[in-house]
Amino acid sequence: MAKQREIKFRDRGYVLEGQRGNLTFALYNDNSKEALEEQTYYVVVRHKEIESLGFTTAGYRHFTLAAAKEFCQKIAAREIDPEALLVEFAAEDMAKEQAAIREVTERAKQFQKRLDAKGLKYTDLLELEVLAHSLGDMGHHILLGYERGEGWPSGT
Fold this sequence. Notes:
The chain has four helices and five strands, in the order βββββαααα. The chain has helices at 65-76, 82-117, 122-134, 136-147, and strands at residues 10-11, 15-20, 23-29, 41-47, 55-56. Strands 1-2-3-4-5 form a five-stranded antiparallel sheet, covered by helices on one side. It is elongated.
């Protein structure tokens, strides 16, 4: 395969933009990291006519400036298939979601154990929360005082 012309990127202030055919490439500086030894970038690819062919690497892949430019060059040369990349990103999203579900489920199990130790069901707790909120701030403080041994307010 013949070597393709290098994509020229122009500085647009907060983004470097380049174009090849129907594709526009934007390189954004990733400012989300506190301490950066080397600047990293994520890439946004847009197709002029077909919006669904656009994608971003934000949250998935970060590059040095040279690597980001090379990544764009490979997409323009069709060495990287954007659809395959989107399938990879979807798989990563699914794995992250499953990990989050496992973590929250474990916390829910631990909470359920504490409820069981107190002889409560979760629905009992929800009912009690509704009743507690209906007391308002004054009722909340009266109950806290009672729990601390201060008794009920005088005159009641």
